[in-house]
Amino acid sequence: MAKRALILFAHGARAASWAAPFERLRDMAQARMPDVCVSLAFLELMTPQLPELVAELVRSGITQVTVVPVFLGQGGHVLRDLPLMVEQLRTAHPQATISVAEAAGENAAVLNAICDYCIGTLGAP
To answer: 77 versus 84: which is more confidently predicted?
Structure first.
């Protein structure tokens, strides 16, 4: 059986506290999938960054990597930067299958959950 990894890929920020919700998301996903290595990687300003994390995972024997961009929309980073990075990773690690999911904010279920939250902030009339 292939060893699998799920990488939650976020932008990164200068303030370490910015990563807290992404760390909680990682921990929640890991708790629900104990047989999958769930990690968090950043595009910039924070570590680990995606290339270093993928290299580490492949060295540890991971053969299937799924990258989930935890971005609300498909701006330049998701449309241009990530595909280039993933293509370089596929070349550098041909022994691993690397796939990319749609940006979290483009997924209908995620948008519905956010909408439910927003509506719920109004409270009962």
So the answer is: 84
